[in-house]
């Protein structure tokens, strides 16, 4: 029962914080520069989530050639830039990561 109450409480807090903002934004006309700027939010947030796991190893900056996540992310970035294909980027990036982890162990 405690887990259910915990989930309901988390839902209420999350919904209570987000819904009023979304309801307000849907009723007003936002300036074009704000709309344009909001397009950069998802890649920025994703980068902020991913980069620590790519660049840090044991809480130290790791830019060494043996850093498999760094090399795989560079390959994935190149594939994304050249192809603009999300599925191909994910498949190639994960494949390179697994291959490098296997080869570097």
Fold and architecture overview:
This protein is mainly alpha-helical and 105 residues long. It folds into two domains: 30 residues; 67 residues, no CATH class. It contains five helices and two strands, in the order αααββαα. It is extended. It starts with a helix and ends with a helix. α4 runs antiparallel to α5. A two-stranded antiparallel sheet has the order 1-2.
Question: How is this fold's topology laid out?
Answer:
Elements: H1 2-27, H2 32-38, H3 41-55, E1 56-57, E2 60-61, H4 68-83, H5 86-104
Helix pairs in contact: 4-5
Number of strands: 2
Structural class: mainly alpha
Please write the string of helix (H) and strand (E) elements: HHHEEHH
For this structure, the quaternary state is: single chain
The average pLDDT is: 92
Largest sheet: 2 strands, antiparallel
- Could you say which overall geometry the principal axes of the C-alpha atoms support? extended
Number of helices: 5
Strand content range: under 5%
Rg from alpha-carbon coordinates: 20 Å
Helical content stands at over 70%
| Spatial strand sequence of the major β-sheet | 1-2
Low-confidence stretches: none
Number of domain units: 2
**Distance linking N and C termini:** 45 Å
């Amino acid at each position: 029962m405690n887990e259910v109450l915990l989930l309901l409480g988390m839902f209420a807090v999350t919904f209570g914080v987000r819904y009023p903002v979304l309801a307000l934004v849907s009723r007003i006309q936002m300036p074009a520069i704000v709309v344009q700027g909001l397009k950069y939010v998802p890649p920025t947030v994703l980068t902020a989530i991913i980069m620590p796991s790519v660049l840090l190893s044991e809480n130290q900056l790791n830019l060494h050639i043996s850093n498999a996540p760094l090399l795989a992310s560079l390959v994935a970035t190149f594939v994304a830039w050249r192809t603009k294909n999300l599925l191909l980027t994910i498949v190639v990036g994960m494949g390179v990561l697994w291959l490098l982890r296997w080869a570097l162990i």
